[in-house]
Amino acid sequence: MNDLFKGFAKAHAEQNGYLLAATLSPIASSGNPQRLRLIWKSSHSSSVKGDIKHFIKSNSSHQRSLDHEEVKGWVEVYAAYWNAIGDVVAVEDGKSTWTKVYESWKDVTSALIRGYNNFGFEAWTIPCLYVIGKYLRLFAIRSDTERSRSAGDNSGGAALIQDDFDPETEKQSQLRDCEQHLKRIFTLCLNDRAPLEESRKWGIYFIINLLFKTYFKLNSASLSRTILKTLSAYRGDMPALSAFPKSQRVTFKFYEGVLFFLEENYIEAEKYLVEAWELCHKDANANLERILTYLIPCRLLTTHVLPTKALLEPFPRLQKLFLPLAQCIRKGDLRAFDIALQEGEDEFVKRRIYLTLERGRDIALRNLLRKVFIAGGFDELKEGETTPVRRTRVPVAEFRAAICMGSGGELVDTDEVECLLANMIYKDLMKGYIARERGIVVLSKKGAFPGTGV
Amino acid sequence: MASTTEPKVAETEQSTPSEQQKPEQKHLALGEDDEFEDFPVDDWPADQTEAAQRNGETKHLWEESWDDDDTSDDFSNQLKWVVGSLLVSTLLLTALSLDFRPRRRFR
């Protein structure tokens, strides 16, 4: 325990928040695998507060001394921490549960929040909130998994009796509870009135990112909007996002982008996802992969572009996910597209990109119709014309033939073909009109298929 | 202040766990397998970003969704053939339905 408070004193002397936060980590450090056990064994529940007070005072006596109130606050925090560590050690020995760990970690959280509210903890210490919040969420998830597993073991009769009980909600009850506590931290950071240089506002994006992760996990991503709304109400007195560390910025942009993506606002989504991608650390492949998982479908719909092999090269999983579809889109092979979409359905749904990719069928169809237009060649040059003009009057029958071919030889009737054509025109993927009585499509001479060079 | 912190300190916390601690670490990481991961460092210089890696050049990473260089002659021949056969089948169907009409009327 002496080591712990040496770290505490050093952190205070340097005003180094990350060093201080490391003393509150509920996992062992690389240099000291026995760290938790040693801390736990070095005190006893009857004497822990006294011990902590003693260690804080003896270690920081020769440095800038903490004021009385602050010491009181930290004693509370570390006493709760010591208690929680006891539970973590017990879980490792199979003598406790993650639920208990979560409960005792919640006490650490409360003690820390009280420290800021009542005992004047300074703003440089906010990385402690990061560590506390981060593990609070992880312990909640562990506890939920553990509880649903044990519920699975002895369910059966019980579940039948309580028929108004929603297993989905129950399954994540701890995480829901955790969200409440993260929100307390969020408010704690948001409402700090201290001048910016010494404000807890610097903790806001870290906590928001934790909340985003929590909402996404709870399948209620849309609740993230509430947080963003609150944030924008305060934006005036908030430090600019660009002043925050890149790890926080990338995470924030990613979630904001995905949020727009889920709201089908692909233009905005693309903006944020591109920013996240550009700012991301070059070696953080797993995160780059996550960004691209959304950016690729997004770009398919906004600018109708596909990823190249060079882009997907470092990501075998993305290759498997997107290359078959990309191939079908490029070829205008509707039937193969449907099959590829179906084959990847589970993965696509899991990643919430199925509905977006489904819309890629329009691009496949556009490419198919474009091929018909190209195959039509050029009209004969009229007097005074120097550049050849493509044939812009295309019989519906030709489009129908192409669509039948693209659908794997299935017979598609003319009405349906006209409907598909009308949709293409409506979506601005094709320019022109259908002259029904003559059975032809009159395409625009200036860009029949906008953005594709013809 | 909190914005520009030393990456090194954050690193220690994330660094590779010892053998004994591995299962515990894994458990904790499990909850995060489908969500954005924590970065091992808090901040990094601009030259370590993905954008810098690409020198701001992203053109070769994306390509148009259409291609028209592949055997467009084949396509147009096939198209002609299918247009023809569709026409025949349509005529045939029309003929058949014409054929049926008088019979129905006589019934």
Automatic annotation (TrEMBL), chain A:
One Pfam family it belongs to: PCI
Superkingdom classification of source: Eukaryota
PROSITE patterns attached to this UniProt entry: PCI (PS50250)
GO molecular function: double-stranded DNA binding; RNA binding
InterPro entries linked to this entry: Csn12-like (IPR045114), PCI_dom (IPR000717), WH-like_DNA-bd_sf (IPR036388)
Segment forming the signal sequence: none
Family under the similarity heading: Belongs to the CSN12 family.
Protein name as catalogued: Protein CSN12 homolog
Organism of this sequence: Trichoderma asperellum (strain ATCC 204424 / CBS 433.97 / NBRC 101777)
Automatic annotation (TrEMBL), chain B:
Pfam family, one: DSS1_SEM1
Polar residues bias (residue ranges): 1-20
Subcellular location: Nucleus
Acidic residues: compositionally biased ranges: 31-45
Protein name: 26S proteasome complex subunit SEM1
UniProt-annotated stretches for the region Disordered: 1-70
Major subcellular site: nucleus
Function summary: Component of the 26S proteasome, a multiprotein complex involved in the ATP-dependent degradation of ubiquitinated proteins.
UniProt biased composition (Basic and acidic residues): 21-30
Family statement drawn from the similarity comment of this UniProt entry: Belongs to the DSS1/SEM1 family.
Biological process terms in GO annotation: double-strand break repair via homologous recombination; mRNA export from nucleus; proteasome assembly
Keywords: Membrane, Nucleus, Proteasome, Transmembrane, Transmembrane helix
InterPro entries xref list: DSS1_SEM1
Record keyword Membrane present: yes
Top-level taxonomy: Eukaryota, Fungi, Dikarya, Ascomycota, Pezizomycotina
Residues spanning the membrane: 81-100
Annotated GO CC locations: nucleus; proteasome regulatory particle, lid subcomplex
